[in-house]
Structure formats: C-alpha cells, structure tokens
Design brief:
Layout: H1 7-20, H2 37-43, E1 48-51, H3 62-67, E2 77-81, E3 84-87, E4 90-92, E5 99-103, E6 109-113, H4 120-123, E7 126-128, E8 133-136, E9 139-142, E10 159-161, E11 166-169, E12 172-174, E13 180-182, E14 186-190, E15 193-196, E16 198-203, E17 206-210, E18 213-216, E19 227-231, E20 241-245, E21 248-251, E22 257-261, E23 267-271, E24 274-275, E25 284-285, E26 297-301, E27 318-319, H5 322-329, H6 336-339
Parallel strand pairs: 1-2, 2-5, 3-6, 4-7, 5-8, 6-9, 7-10, 8-11, 9-12, 10-13, 11-14, 12-15, 13-16, 14-17, 15-18, 16-19, 17-20, 18-21, 19-22, 20-23, 21-24, 22-25, 23-26, 26-27
C-alpha cells in the first residue's frame, strides 16, 4: 500500500508533529493524546492496539502487540505505546507491514535492553525488517556497558533498520558503539536524537536525516578518534548513502570524525548542519579502509559552526556547490513523495 501526503495536509501534520514533542530526548511538559487525528485520517484506519505496561491496555508488552498483527497485514495498524520503560527486545518481522508504532514522546516511552555481541543484529534492542513502518515519539536504548574494543563485547546496537520505506519521527537512539544500524532500504529520520561514540550510524541504506541531533560521547578505549558515520557503499551503481540536513552535531570529550570509509564508494553528506568543535579538523578518515580514496564521497554543504572549518579537511573531502547539493537536499533522494506520510 502506497501513501502520500502533500500540500496543506502535509503542512498541517508537520505543525502538529512539531508542536507535540520536544528536542534533545527530554520529555515535554504535557501528555500527548493517543494518535494524531490528521495522520490517522490519512492512513485510513481507526484500528488501534493499546500497550500499557501498567495493565491499562490490551497488552503489557510491545512484542505481544506486534505478534497479534496478522501476517501479511495490508492495512495500517496503530500500536500506541503509553509512557513507561519497556524492558524487552522488540522485533517487527518481514511479514508484518503497515505498523505505526506510536509512543507518548521520546522522553516518556522507552524500549530498553542490554546486550553486547559480535553480531550487530543479534545485539539490537529493536529490529524492523518489514516495509511500511513508522515509529513516532519513542526512545530505543541498548544500555550494555562499553565493552572491550575489537572483541565480541564491542557491538551494542539500539536499533537495526533492515527494511524499505521506514520512517522515524521524534525518536531517540542511545548506545555507545554502533548505535543505529541503518542497514538497507529507504529511510527517513525527522527530528531524532542519536547518541554514540564510534561508527554509531552505520550500514548501507539510503537515508535522509532531517533536523536530527547527533550527540557524541568520547570513546576512551582506543587511540583512534570516534566517528559519527560509517557508510558501507560498495560500488558506484549502489543507490545508497546518508544525508544529514540541518540539525547539529555536538558532544563531549575528544574530537571525532564526521565519518570513516567503510566501503570504496562510501557516501555521506552533511548539509546546512551546525558542527561544533567536537568535529576534528580533518573531518573524515579512511583509517580502516585499505583502498584508494578517489571514489569516496564525503561531502559538506553550507555547514556552520567551529567544526565546519574546511581548511584542514581530508584531501578527498568535498565542499559542494548549491547545484551539486540539490539532489541530496530533495526528498526525492529517498523517493519520499511515493511513500512518506509527511516530510519537510
């Protein structure tokens, strides 16, 4: 099922979204109502499953609510998760499309687990492998303690996103290392908060991060500096990459790189983003990639702040012109007009 909002409806929902949640992972001052009337209307459903950890809904467990959705589901189902800390691993399998997982705000509704593993996917607190999935107002956290670098205790993923046409609005992702495994598919992150140290947004998806806050935690275990992204694009024909539009990158401790090369055609763009002094002057690194740098696409456009100084950038880093940046700034980079409920 394809869905599309444009014009006044999209604008109205955007205003509703912006007014309903606060930035930076903190709770808002008031309770939000269950669901968005406008969004619900456009999804053509009143089918809502209520999850309440205190027993006030049909289920106390988020996973139990997801399990209740029929396999092959082709109509939107709203799973509203009331405030609380839900300590469980949550998986949206391939055969459960059209799920709208709605929380009461990322400072109020939390999905939390604690696991490290040599297998990133196995460690993930939250996994989505079905297309047509929306999450709104939820925090995803892997609270496993920082392990020993280069060992099986190193990976602790908060969310694994392994499906096409997935959107997160006003969500938060917390871990130390490998926070967000943005594995594959077309994804949209709007007004999200993402926290980590090394490679904490990684994978080979085609994703737009709009007005997101990226918070860096210094990793004291190793001599290398941390990195916000590790994009794994293998060839020129692979239509993937991470694009960050507006938002900001800031943090504490040692400086970090905007990204490192994970594949020979690694592609990451930061546009119109505030970069604090957390960003190392070189900006980008290929420390773990043995190949040449001629095909790397590590680029910036119209960024601001002390970390945006381009004077000492890596030699392959690109400073884009307005014309060069335009394809990445458009929602068409992820074909969003075809499947997103709302975008800015």
């Amino acid at each position: 099922m394809m869905f599309k909002l444009q014009g006044l409806v999209a604008f109205a929902i955007t205003l509703f979204v912006s007014a309903s949640f606060t930035h930076g992972g903190h709770p808002s001052g008031e309770d939000e109502k269950i669901g968005s009337p406008l969004l619900t209307q456009e999804l053509h459903t009143n089918n809502t499953i209520l999850v309440d950890i205190n027993g006030g809904g049909q289920f106390k467990s988020i996973q139990a609510a997801i399990d209740s959705v029929p396999a092959g589901n082709n109509k939107w189902v709203i799973i509203h998760v009331r405030r609380g800390v839900y300590r469980e691993k949550v998986h949206v399998p391939q055969d459960k499309p059209h799920i709208f997982l709605r929380g009461n705000g990322r400072g109020k509704t939390h999905i939390v687990w604690s696991q490290s593993s040599h297998d990133n996917i196995e460690s993930a607190t939250f996994k989505v492998e079905s297309p047509y999935f929306i999450a709104f107002g939820i925090s995803f956290k892997n609270e496993a303690p920082t392990g020993v670098a280069y060992t099986s205790q190193n990976q602790s993923v908060a969310a694994f996103v392994g499906a096409d046409m997935v959107a997160f609005y006003h969500c938060a992702f917390y871990s130390t290392h490998n926070t967000l495994f943005d594995y594959k598919g077309r994804h949209y992150y709007d007004n999200c908060y993402i926290q980590g140290s090394i490679d904490f947004i990684f994978g080979r998806a085609r994703s737009t991060f709009h007005s997101c806050e990226i918070f860096v935690i210094s990793d004291k275990r190793v001599s290398i500096k941390g990195s916000v992204t590790a994009n794994h694009r293998e060839n020129a024909n692979e239509c993937s990459g991470f694009v960050f539009i507006k938002g900001k990158v800031y943090g504490v401790g040692d400086h970090v790189y905007l990204g490192r090369a994970k594949g020979p055609f690694s592609r990451v763009v930061f546009a119109e983003t505030y970069l604090s002094k957390t960003i190392v002057p070189q900006g980008w690194t290929n420390w773990s990639y043995a190949g040449g740098t001629e095909n790397l696409f590590h680029a910036e456009y119209n960024c601001k702040g002390p970390g945006a100084d381009f004077a000492e950038r890596a030699p392959w880093a690109k400073q884009l012109t307005e014309k060069e940046a335009a394809p990445f700034l458009s929602i068409d980079f992820i074909d969003g007009r075809e499947w997103l409920p709302v975008w800015i």
